[in-house]
Known about the structure:
By secondary structure, this protein is α+β, with helices and mostly antiparallel strands. Helix content is 37%, strand content 32%. The chain has a single domain (4-103), classed as Cell Cycle, Spindle Assembly Checkpoint Protein, Chain A. It is built from 2 helices and 6 strands. Helix 1 (8-26) runs antiparallel to helix 2. The longest helix has 19 residues, at 8-26. It comes from Phaedon cochleariae. InterPro entries: HORMA_dom (IPR003511), HORMA_dom_sf (IPR036570), Mad2-like (IPR045091). This is HORMA domain-containing protein.
Amino acid sequence: xxTQKISSADILSEFFEVLVHNIIYQKKIYPDTIFxxxxxxxxxxxxxxxxxxxxxxxxxxxAVNFHARKKQLKRLFLCFxxxxxxxxxxxxxxxxxxxxxxxx
Length: 104
C-alpha cells in the first residue's frame, strides 16, 4: 500500500473552490442553467460549467494556493458588490495549515 502525500494547500484550495461555486449557486448570482450537480465530500454540490466564471474562480484559487503554500494565508474574503456598495461578504479564517496530509 503506497502513501501519497497531498499538500494541505491543495486540499484547502479545492475546498474553497467547491465553497465558492456553491455560494454563487445558492445566492443566484448567475442563472441555475450554468451549474451542474455533482457529488463531492459525500454530498451534492453545484459547480459552474461556464468557462469565464470557472476561469475567474480558478485564477482566484491559484492565489489562495500560492499563499497557503507559503503559510501566508490567514483569511479569505468573498464579497459580492455592485458599483454602489458591497451587498454580501463572507470571511473565512484559516487558523493552521500542516505541511502535508497523508492519504492512503
